[in-house]
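Standup, Tuesday
Yesterday: got the pipeline producing structure tokens again.
Today: sanity-check two examples.
Blockers: none.

Example 1:
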Amino acid sequence: MKRKVILLTSSCLFVMILSFAITYALLISQDKAVNSFEVGQNTIEVVEEYEPPEEITGGTVIVKKPYVKNKGNLPCFVRMRADFSDSKAIEFCEEIKINDKWEYNTKDGYYYYKEVLKVGEETEYLFEEIKIKEFKENGTDSYTKANMIDFDINIYAESIQHTDHEGECEQEEYKTVWLWN
């Protein structure tokens, strides 16, 4: 019987020491895992070539060439808006000719660039000029010199990352990416 008690006590002591050793080993062990990754940067810059006229009169052509440059490290899709600061100014301007590389969405008011903009590349100009209509000094039209108002055309752009880092694009993929309905 004495032998059984000694054996049982020894076994319990052995199990406790073994448990303590395993627990201690698990607590002090250190494993390092290095996960290297690079965060993508979807960064664009709105650039415009603009030559303000000295005076705005009927027939004045204002050179304004807005475009977008991809300054990030990923290809992206781009969309732009061109908004008059005063909606009354629209009637003083002839219709602005938009470049064929851009497509207008009537539902949200944005112009969508039809191609993927690769890293470091620039879009085509959205438009190149704004032409003021000829004034009708004696006519019934509201665009007379006396009615002319000061205005700005504000340019706003957004981009969304393209999933193919090489920048390959299916035809009209920009519509899918921007959830064009």
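Example 2:
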Amino acid sequence: MTNEQPAVDASGGIQLDDRSNTMGVVGLIFGILGLLTCGLLSTFGLIFSIIGLSKSRNGTAIAGLVMSILGFLMIIPLLIGLLLPALSKARQVAQQSSAVVSASNTIATWKSEHDGTLPSDQEANENLLPGIEKMHGSIHYAKLGDDRYSLSFPGIDGQHGTPDDQVWISDKGVLSKE
């Protein structure tokens, strides 16, 4: 062991040797905390580690930099896990909207070819919509009146006619989601 005494400046204060690289140590601490928080504190670790590296290239600053980068890499799977369900839902809504437009156009064409009358439930479900179902999934037509019909898609349970169905109503050619 050495018995080195800290240097004393002219005013009588003690001068600390900055070989410990305080910024590098702080960067390492935030880098480790960044790993423990799935990257949330990694930005601070990165900043302090870079400052620590600019002062002196010691192991703590480099370790803090590595830990911070690993923390950032942990954010990627977390973001993917959060975004995939939203993207899946957006895709489902887009497919459903496309199916509604296709079905309403098919029904409008049938109506114009049949003296302005809507098809029966059987006619629409058996003859008009199966081609659309192949492209867009299960869809069910129900005639509600002379100029009114519904298009429904099964909800989470996969069954038509249950409370979780997604239903679109066409009233005099105007579509709205119920």
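Quick observation on example 2: The chain has a mean pLDDT of 85. The chain has two domains: 7-78, 90-177.
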